[in-house]
Design goal:
The structure is a single chain. The chain has 14 helices and 23 strands. It has 429 residues and is of the alpha/beta class. Helix 4 (126-134) packs parallel to helix 6 (169-179) and helix 11 (318-325) packs parallel to helix 13 (388-400). Bound molecules: shikimate-3-phosphate. Shikimate-3-phosphate (S3P) is lined by residues 23, 26, 96, 168-170, 173, 194-195, 315-316, 339.
Length: 429
């Protein structure tokens, strides 16, 4: 198993670009495939999760051209242009692939099976299977449809008005994609706003979609037209560099062209509240998604509270925010974040157990944790549990800590950010 040894230390200086946003890249391939005509995707993520989505559409008859290394052209075939995949679709580690595709597959005129790796097969699918079933979808899976492999017999769908108990963009998007195939208007309301890339992109492609606070509705049968889509850098990948530059003395890092959609920038809000010196420069908007350069300088951080509506806006950044909290002055309390327990691994358990190995003080709650900041972390041997964001967070902790750190099982980083280590280590002075 690949491991990463961190011994080299020093301030981080320079400019970095991070890979294209993972969530937006999935959606560009999915929606581009359902649109009529060509969709040109500029700078998509090439992480394994995104390749899984791309491969699934290739299996369903979509032709993909790669005219340049940083571009994909999806030859969309319209809402009913997909063909039956001859084999099982393998979503690998990607929750977004399995959940969004489940929504989409329920409305097709064919049969399909979708599964994933040993981690994904343990993650809950009932959250999409239940509302989709109430639309008339025919889905089977282990434990009453809660675990992949999922078997889907495409059928005609009825619209629903669904009040979701959780703020989840994957649930919302699965229902919106199924809603494209329903006879009428499908509506979903979430308790607080989760990332809204699906809504923004569907609208850009011409879907008949309406938004009202935390509700969104879509008319079945909307015609989608191919578009050119620039993918902004992924703020969830930028997060590791932001935290590293803040906590490692003598650092100054400029992250170029990062997506700063307000449903994703909770990390910036939280860090600014903690006293971070972060500036947004060169702000602009591309097809409805805001983008900016982010300039980060070493700062003295203090503890804070992260809860309520901030949770869906920081959900993927909570592990690396916990690393920042472990050296901030005072306590940081994370609450209302039970969702962390059903991510690529149980991220509350993983963060608590691994940060303690660095000498951090962490108290675990059912829905979060309290982290009491220390002056210094000490290098240690720790493990990722096969979770890319835990692996990258621990590498940042290793850079901050004194002495040597070994992070076990770091090949999972390729899920979202294959060039992470090279980019990070090249910034060390
Ligand atoms: C994602 C939504 C979030 C997030 C995940 C990507 C998406 O999951 O954690 O990494 O692309 O829709 P949930 O919808 O389960 O909160």
């Amino acid at each position: 198993m690949e491991k990463t040894v961190i011994e080299q230390k020093g301030g981080l200086k320079g400019e970095v670009t991070v890979p294209g946003d993972k969530s937006i890249s999935h959606r560009a391939v999915i929606i581009g495939s359902l649109a009529k005509g060509k969709t040109r995707i500029i700078e998509p993520s090439r992480g394994d999760d995104n390749l899984r989505t791309l491969n699934a559409f290739r299996m369903m008859g979509i032709e993909v051209d790669e005219p340049k290394v940083d571009q994909l052209i999806i030859n969309g075939r319209g809402l009913y242009g997909l063909t039956e995949p001859e084999d099982v679709i393998d979503a690998g580690n990607s929750g977004t692939t399995v959940r969004l595709l489940t929504g989409l597959l329920t409305g097709q005129r064919f049969f399909s099976v979708i599964t994933g790796d040993r981690y994904l097969r343990k993650r809950p699918m009932k959250r999409v299977v239940e509302p989709l079933s109430s639309m008339g979808a025919k889905i089977w899976g282990r434990e009453n449809g809660n675990f992949a492999p999922l078997v889907i017999n495409g059928t005609r769908l009825n619209p629903i008005d669904y009040i979701s108990p959780i703020a989840s963009a994957q649930v919302k998007s699965a229902i919106l994609l199924a809603g494209l195939y329903a006879d009428g208007v499908t509506k979903i309301t979430e308790p607080s706003l989760s990332r809204d890339h699906t809504e923004r992109m569907l609208r850009f492609f011409g879907a008949n979609l309406k938004r009202d606070d935390n509700s969104v509705s879509i008319a079945g049968g909307s015609n989608l037209e191919g578009r050119k889509i620039e993918i902004p850098g992924d703020i969830s990948s930028a997060a590791f560099f932001i935290v590293a530059a803040l906590v490692i003395p003598n650092s100054e890092v400029l992250l170029k062209r990062v997506g700063v959609n307000p449903s994703r920038t909770g990390i910036l809000e939280v860090l600014k509240k903690m006293g971070a010196n972060i500036q947004l420069l060169n702000e602009y908007e591309t097809w409805g998604e805001p983008v900016a350069d982010i300039l980060v300088k070493t700062s003295r951080l203090k503890g804070t509270k992260i809860e309520g509506e901030l949770i869906p806006k920081t959900i993927d950044e909570l592990p690396v925010l916990s690393v920042a909290a472990s050296v901030a002055e005072g306590d940081t309390v994370i609450k209302d974040a039970k969702e962390l327990r059903v991510k690529e691994t149980d991220r509350i358990k993983a963060v608590a157990s691994e940060l303690k190995k660095f000498g951090a003080e962490v108290e675990e709650f059912d829905d979060g944790m309290r982290i009491s900041g220390k002056d210094e972390l000490k290098g240690c041997d720790c493990q990722s549990f096969g979770d890319h964001r835990i692996a990258m967070s621990l590498i940042i902790a290793g850079l901050m800590a004194s002495g040597k750190t070994v992070v076990e099982d770091t090949s999972c980083i390729g899920t979202s950010f294959p060039e992470f280590k090279d980019k990070l280590f090249s910034l060390i002075q």
